[in-house]
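Example A, followed by Example B.
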Amino acid sequence: MRARWQHRIPVRIRHYWKLLAICVAVIVTFGVVFSTVRVAPLVTSTGSANSGRVTQNIVGTTDLFDSGIAHQIDLTFRDDAYQRMLDDYFDQGEKDYVEADITIDGVLVQSVGIRLKGNSTLSGLTRDGQARTNGRTAPGGAGGFPGGQEAGAADEARPEGFPGGAPAGGGMGMSLLKSEEPETLPWLIRFDEFVEGRRYQGHREIAVRVAGMGGGQSVVNEATALQLLANAGISAEGYAYTSFTVNSRPTVARLVVEHPDEEFAADLGGNGVLYKSLSTGEFAYKGDDPTDYTEDFKQITQQGSQDLQPVIDLMRWVDRSSDAEFAADLDDHLDVDSFARYLAAQNLLVNSDDMAGPGKNYYLWYDLDTRKFSVIGWDYNLALTGNAEQDPNAAVSMGGFGGARAGQGGQDGGGLQLPEGMELPEGMELPEGMELPEGMEMPGGGGMPGGLGGHKLKERFLAADALMPAYQEAYRNLYDQMYAHDAATKAVDAIAKVLSTVDGRDRQAIDSEVQSLRTLLQQRASYLAGTSIIS
């Protein structure tokens, strides 16, 4: 019996079984011993080449981000692929790409990738009347509002005083979206998802912004914010208005915005690395292991030649430096004048979702020559929607309320007054005077979407008396460029003129939203002119 069993084993194995046993033992030993060893990525090259080699750049007929003219975009894709994409999103929360053909100002580009874009923006998305809530579907389309409201009934269902979708000045503005109306959804369009190395006018990606998140149908608040930033010489994405048609469905007017990528980084000038702050993360030092920051930051450029270490070093220093060290040595780590302009601009534009907001909407630009960081803002769909009398010395917060900087009495931001009766998660407090609707719970049992925000770098800067002169000087200069001599209202009027020529526009909604925004800007300019920092 034993002999028959032995003869079934190949001769070579019988001859060398001791050697094979030793090899197996070594492999098992390595697996046990080294399974607990941390492996960190190391970058030894100091080259400056960006990731992604461009092999095709489609020139097009018209500059896509020429904001002075109306554009035209047509998008087509297979419905079965679209339904699979929705399956993945509603079941798993995954935002997969769908292959599509796009025609931009008459130029056909085949096989681009499109996917849903946004986080809180998609909280109001429904499919067959069902909303996705924490990985499952729930009746209604209120994006976390109680009662399972049907899509389209947000204003009626939303408790009185709760932040809503009032045009150009109505607070957070949860937008209710139907997957059956893809022409209304927020999209990210990637030109090289299915064709490697392709760009459109140098851009790898563009974003189609969603209506309703603070700016009404026209999102004129975001366009105006981007225009005012550009007028002041502050880095901002390009934008333009376009007619937008999907699979021969009704045409609508949409705002398209440049998505920060290699081309955007190149426009910043110099030799540097662009990092994106992720909405899932935080600005907090967690140790020197780069793998601990995968949910906090994403490196956009120079992948393979640079790494995340400069960001880690910055967070460590901000976390550990004393107040005196922070004020005295910040200029060794950060372009102080640039950061002062960034902070002043966010306040001037009453942007409640900047680097300290729930969306953590900012990029870090690390200049490899100066070894200093700059903060780059983006995603301004909640700018110019808050309190016109926001204190220049206060940090703008989600919902329109603002707290004074440390060391000052300051002014209340004018704030959001919400109905009473809502309980908050343990340990969480709202600003004085802010209450939540009776019987209403925070979405998912947590805080406001994304949390109420906060950012240690911003907070420490605004709390440092030694840094206030730089902030105040930047504030005065930007006020002159953005608000003096009716600059802001003139920008709105120019945008409205272009909007009036875009196919698919809602003329009545645009007129109302433009007028509301003009009123807010006039009130803001008048209020600021009387503050001590300006007068």
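Example B, a separate protein, is given below in the same form.
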Amino acid sequence: MRTVLFFLIAFLPGFWTSISAQNPYIQHYTTSSGLPTNTIYQIYQDSHKFIWFTSDAGVVKFDGSSFTTYRKKDGLSSNDIVRIKEDSKGRIWLFNYNGSVNFIYKNKVFNNKNTPYLNFLMGKGFVFDFYTDFSQTIHFYTWQREVFSLDTANRVSKNLLFNAITPELYPIRNYIPIIKVLYLSKAPADEWIIWTSIGAFKQDLQQKRKIIILDSTLHCRAVFPAQNKTLYIITFYNQLLKVTGRLRREKIPYPGEVGKIKSIIEDSKGYIWIAAYDEGVYCLKNNKVVRHFDIKNALGLIQDHENNIWISSQTDGIYVIAHDLLEQNHFDCSHFDNMGLNRLCDFPGMGIWCTNTKSAFLLKNDVFYKLAVPKEIQPLNIMHKFKDQTLLLGSVSNRLCTFDQIKPQVKTRQIAFGKRNIYQVAVKKIIEDKLGFITAMFDQNWIFFTNRGLPDARDAFNSLSERINNAFYNTDDELVINAKKNYLYRNNKLLPYTVLSRFDGAIISDHLFLNDSAELFNIDGDSLYILKNNRFYNLTDAFDTPFRSQINNIYFDDSTLYLATFK
């Protein structure tokens, strides 16, 4: 079912580049959604799955539905917070632009007034990041080469990296460079691994002046750690490099200006996401761009526990991209005789059938096979599969046609079949009971049942006194008729179905099962209700974004409900 849905959505106009709120894969949060500002620097997810945002108006905590903002009035030392990170004790550390350090623990803000040791964590600039070593000592560091180490007894010690710059380290005579520390970690031995603007180095913690050059040619402008000790590095030579164990380098082709890159992450499926100021967000796989999103002034990136990608912006708030977007394939109209599609049908074990009203097409293993159909059953808008793999095609309230022994022909990309039969039977819809043993077909004023799958003269056509809008089986495997009122169909009779009496006079546009005890109803294309244990829940009222277009199709798969409109 998920494959069918992706296939369907791929035909939405402008889907590839649009990031409007109507795109079902992308959410956009701004001040109108509850953010205190549209300037968001960094995004971070803590161990409890809360999402945090640093901004010029405080730090924001998002619980999935609402935003909570902490500011100076709540105890912070500054409203301009640049970086954020959680330690192993669950403290959420905040690094402010003015150089001060705060943390939040159990919803309480700790500052230099109620926590004096925080005064000793202030340096020449704001703290850029930290790492925790094997002894649980936290090492905070700044771009200005300062390292503040906080042990488990809350004692702070300070170190300065590169105390003595020797000609060996930087052999340009009469010039002492401004060294900027971009990334700091600890080697298995008692050593720091330091990535800087003049190269990569190792410094012995016991002998502070003993510095070993690892690579003096890696002049880093920015360093982004990834999985398996991989680093993505932007150099001062405008290169984007992937650096792995033993300093092995791989140049990553980037279509934009490398100097504008603000953040890089590698997600759990190996996709590389790059946020670049003025250039939007690129997604790469195997060094090729697979998506580009025109997001204004993109800054930060994270992947959350559900594999969604969060993007912060300097001027436009936050975007959330569902990772499922990357799993879809796009097939344009050239696959369907340059016509659009009006019907899709999932055939487990065979593939996906679709029609352009003139012909039927089978998608199997990313290859399309064409089945020409008689003009008598055009425009083609009914598709159904019987248990014996017989394919039934037809035109609503017109004729039906069956094809048995269907077989795709690899060389010709055509569909071969054994026998074809055309039936003078006007059908509006075809449905089956839960086990698929009984097939019901109905038109506006009659219904018939067959357990053979094919209509013939032996089938009894039962007339009804009311026009049938829809019919479906409920969770008890009873046939429900949606007409002037809602009925149960038993022994060729219509019996009032009191459970659905609230929808009498309305058209039930669509119906599906959520599980063995819950059903979903689409009422007149504009209201969704869940029925469980004889109690109704108005699902439409629960949506953050109201529907302004008719809901044409609903699918449910893997605990996710998908809704499709013409927009």
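On Example B: Confidence is low (pLDDT under 50) at residues 1-22.
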